[in-house]
Amino acid sequence: MKPAAFDYARPKEWSEAVKLVGAGARAGAGTQSLGPLLNLRLSQPSTIADLRHLPNYAGVIVAGGVLRIGAGTTHAAIEDGAVPGRIGEIMAAVARRIAYRPVRNRGTIGGSLAHADPAADWVAVLPALGGTAIAFGPNGERRLPLTGFVLGIFETALAPDELLRAVEVPVLPATAKWGHWKFCRKVGEFSKATACVLSVPGAKPRAVLAALDGPPLVIEDASALLADPVREASRVVATVEGLSPWRRSVAETALRHAVEGAA
Ligand SMILES: Cc1cc2nc3c(=O)[nH]c(=O)nc-3n(C[C@H](O)[C@H](O)[C@H](O)COP(=O)(O)OP(=O)(O)OC[C@H]3O[C@@H](n4cnc5c(N)ncnc54)[C@H](O)[C@@H]3O)c2cc1C
Questions:
Q1: Is the C-beta atom of 28 inside 6 A of ligand 1?
Q2: Same domain (yes/no): 227, 252
Q3: Which of 170, 195, 219 is the last residue of a domain?
Q4: What distance in Å separates the CA atoms of residue 263 and residue 250, rounded to the nearest whole number?
């Protein structure tokens, strides 16, 4: 099937893009998810606002202990080292395992978050890293913690007239330990259970369990999980409703492997 006819807009300023979206246009980034939605006619916008020509849409800026990553930064750029330091190593390893290189060449970190597929990698990983979403709307920028950004399946905390402009992640010390484990039935497929653990000396360890058909489950203090992964993984997974037995088992395994990775 082919998309229904739509107008194509190429805003050059964020304020112009926000006006278009506020008037009902659909934002377009790498179109790796939007393309199929259009082709299947699950989305039939009258206008697509192509974000790729906006100022500072892609790229990484380091300032004051924080890395600001433009929403249009592709998974491939992150894989190739666009993000410096320890957090860059962690993010490159995550990016490398998103889909296939052709998808990573076009798919963007902002598009992935805004799309809010519960199984998407950045949806799981960025809350674990303590990231912040930078939204841009008619009143300028708004900061939203990524722990509460994805509200449900394909649902985010962005207002209908807001765009995701960037994400911010903290600079991490070289001693930060990271564990990330996801279960895909075959290489390049979306995950059926993802877990991440971040342990930074002097701070409480944080963990995330995700890809379970709902928003990510963020464990702000994962000390108990690190102390007794088998018992705590089982307790945490039992709090997630509606999982089949095999999914529970895979989710527990994901949490245990993520703890091992961060050990
Ligand atoms: C075959 C295949 C396999 C994949 N496997 C994986 C995988 O294993 N893991 C994974 O995480 N992802 C996977 N993906 C998804 C891919 O990683 C893309 O990141 C994701 O599709 C969205 O990014 P995009 O830039 O292409 O956004 P688009 O497809 O252009 O947009 C997606 C949605 O977000 C909105 N949007 C885009 N940018 C913004 C913005 N800045 N502000 C507000 N709204 C915005 C659009 O309006 C649209 O609703 C896969 C995709 C394909 C095609």
A1: yes
A2: yes
A3: 170
A4: 20
Summarize pLDDT for 122-176 with one digit per residue, the tens.
999 999 999 999 999 999 999 999 999 999 999 999 999 999 999 999 999 999 9
Contact in structure between 52 and 59 (CB atoms under 8 Å):
no
Using most ligand atoms within 8 A of CB, pick from 115, 126, 162, 196 the residue to mutate for ligand 1: 115
Q: Could you tell me the distance, in angstroms and rounded to a whole number, from the CA of residue 34 to the centre of ligand 1?
A: 7
Q: Which residues pair with 169 in a beta bridge?
A: 67
Q: 165 with 184, same domain?
A: no
Residue 74 Cα: closest atom of ligand 1: 25
Where would I find the beta strands (DSSP E) of the chain?
Answer: 7-9, 26-28, 47-50, 60-63, 66-70, 132-137, 140-145, 150-152, 155-156, 163-170, 177-183, 193-199, 206-210, 217-219
**What's the gap in Å between 117 CA and the centre of ligand 1?**
8
Range of the domain at 97: 60-170
| Number of domains present in the structure of the chain | 3
Question: What pLDDT is stored for residue 189 in this prediction?
Answer: 84
Record the pTM.
0.96
